[in-house]
Amino acid sequence: MKSILITGSSQGIGKGIALHFAALGYHVFVTYHTHKELGEQVLDEIKKNGWSATLIQVDAGNEASVQSLYKSIAATTDTLDILVNSAGAECGGNLETLTFNEWKKTLYPRLDGYFLCTKYAVPFLKKSDNPNVICIMSSLYENVDPEDPSACTADGGTVSFIKAIAVYLAKYKIRTNGVGPSEVETSLPYWVKNGSPEFFTQIAKDNPLGRICTSKDVAQTIQLLVEDPGKFLNGNIIYVTGGNHLK
Fold this sequence. Notes:
- The chain has about 250 residues and is an alpha/beta fold.
- The chain has a single domain (about 5-185, about 215-240), classed as Rossmann fold (3-Layer(aba) Sandwich), CATH 3.40.50.
- Helix content is about 45%, strand content about 15%.
- The chain has nine helices and seven strands, in the order βαβαβαβααβαβαααβ.
- It has helices at about 10-25, 35-50, 65-75, 100-120, 120-125, 150-170, 190-195, 200-205, 215-225, and strands at about 5, 25-30, 50-55, 80-85, 130-135, 175-180, 235-240.
- Helix 1 (about 10-25) crosses helix 9.
- The radius of gyration is 17 Å and the shape is globular.
- The protein starts with a strand and ends in a 7-residue tail after the last strand.
- The mean pLDDT is about 95.
- This is Short-chain dehydrogenase.
- It holds the Pfam family adh_short_C2.
- Belongs to the short-chain dehydrogenases/reductases (SDR) family.
- It comes from Candidatus Dojkabacteria bacterium CG_4_10_14_0_2_um_filter_Dojkabacteria_WS6_41_15.
- InterPro entries: NAD(P)-bd_dom_sf (IPR036291), SDR (IPR050259), SDR_fam (IPR002347).
């Protein structure tokens, strides 16, 4: 059975990716940081469909925690076919309103987390016949938001990381690509909670294709990259925005 590790998969985009690949027959390593109950809900949903998964806690930006994660994985398998770096946090705020702690909270899981989770995945990926690393980002690398410098910086760092390791890991036939969605439907509860549900209506209206991105769109894009017949897609950033990043 093929296996996939998805960081940040107890909710949001990561959850959608986990359910998609479980349905494809992968054993899914679902991870959570602080919300164990959400991780258990994802695990239950996978298992009630007769699919295969394991739930593991990890702080993706903490080296000891990441090492513990891979020790847990090693108890099940010595091979990973796909690593999806999806753990992240976004605080928002411009240069004047954003605190230093909020800045670090955004960059910590993305830059530190993506590095650590990829570094310790390599021995597992080397044993796959089609190993892939996928890094989730946003489309802010193309369309910077002056009101959100931390997210823009996280994306910039992620793109450079993808390019560097795509070349480095190629000698092991490990391919690395990035997937950058626009605003995804899974963040709707946040906007409802903060009194701006109309935000999504406007986003759909403004999108060239007339709708918002879904976690299914993201998962299917990852599947496309992984199942590349020539196994030659490497070092790319695929924007899943309906063309919105070009505006």
